[in-house]
Amino acid sequence: MTAQILIASIIGGIMGIVSHIKKRGRLEKPRMTKRFIYLGFYEDFAVGTIAAIMLVLSSEPQSSFQLVLLSIIAGYSGEAVLKSFEFSAQQEQPEGPPTKNCPSHKPPLP
Fold it and tell me: Which residue spans traverse the membrane (predicted)?
């Protein structure tokens, strides 16, 4: 399992950089402005790596072909994969009674 995670992280990171180049047209280096620090291609490398690891851990591929294919897909579309994990985690939470601040809560009629 450790080898699968290592392979997924490498492939996902490389595909994250490829995705960065496709979006921006070039490889942007990290830079610092007055308001924030822009991580450049390191950001997409990290997102691709994390997305590939999460997808491989959640799906448990049975063959090396599945491992490589899932890592490529997750690394290239890293932000979408991470958003899908976040969305599925929110769906599993049980809904409680509405509160006063909830937009769907309507006060009783007099």
Answer: 6-24, 36-57
Instruction: Write down the pLDDT at residue 110.
Output: 64
- Give the span between the Cα atoms of 69 and 92, in whole angstroms: 27
Q: Rounded CA gap, 26 and 24, in Å? A: 6
Q: Give, to the nearest 10 degrees, the angle between helix 41-59 and helix 2-24.
A: 140
pLDDT-derived band at 93 (thresholds 50, 70, 90) equals low
Between CA 71 and CA 51 the distance in angstroms is 8
| Helix H or strand E segment including 18 | helix 2-24
Question: Could you tell me how many residues make up the chain?
Answer: 110
- List, in order, residues 6 or more apart from 56 with CB less than 8 Å away: 4, 5, 8, 67, 70, 71, 74
Return the residue matching tokens 């006063």.
100
Q: Confidence class of residue 79 from pLDDT cuts 50, 70 and 90?
A: confident
What residues contact residue 39 under an 8 Å CB cut-off, 6+ apart? 30, 46
